Amino acid sequence: MRVTSAAVTSLCLSVGISLFALYGQDAPKTQTSVWDGVYTADQAKHGQTLYNNSCFSCHGADLSGDDEDPPIAGPEFLAKWNGKTADDLFEKIERTMPSGHANSLPRESTRDILAYILSQNAFPAGTTELPLEADKLSQIRMDASKKGAQFQLHPISPLP
Hints:
There is one protein chain. This protein has 160 residues and is an all-alpha fold. The chain has a domain at 38-141: Cytochrome c-like domain (Cytochrome Bc1 Complex, Chain D, domain 2), CATH 1.10.760. It has seven helices and two strands, in the order αβααααααβ. The protein has helices at residues 2-24, 41-54, 56-59, 75-81, 86-96, 107-120, 134-137, and strands spanning 32-33, 140-141. A two-stranded parallel sheet has the order 1-2. Helix 2 packs across helix 6 (107-120) and helix 5 (86-96) packs across helix 6. The longest helix is centred in the N-terminal third of the chain and has 23 residues, at 2-24. Mean pLDDT is 83; it is low at 15-25 and 148-157.
């Protein structure tokens, strides 16, 4: 009976220590993608108004930029930001835009302009607003293409 009791005590102690170690650590942060609906349509609509007031003159109506200002929509933009995070782009906008007036936009405005930029790059809207907090924005990946959509096989008809 003493051997069984010692074994049970040892097992309980091991499980307890393991659970303490597991729950005592910060939970791993999960990443989402811009393809997961990380902004709302209302945010993008508000962001469009802000974009028209602060960004339009340099980046244009179609967000394609010009010789001096980079595009913020389309293949070149997506290639540049692929693999980075929404926070990377948010910080870039906040630190450098509008040209000649960097850091002049409130964080809420920058966030809504970012939502508009995401919408114009065909990323879907969702039901949750794009967050303001850098740690949450850093968990949103800027994926240029939706996983699994890039390499689709199409059936070929057999030859006659």
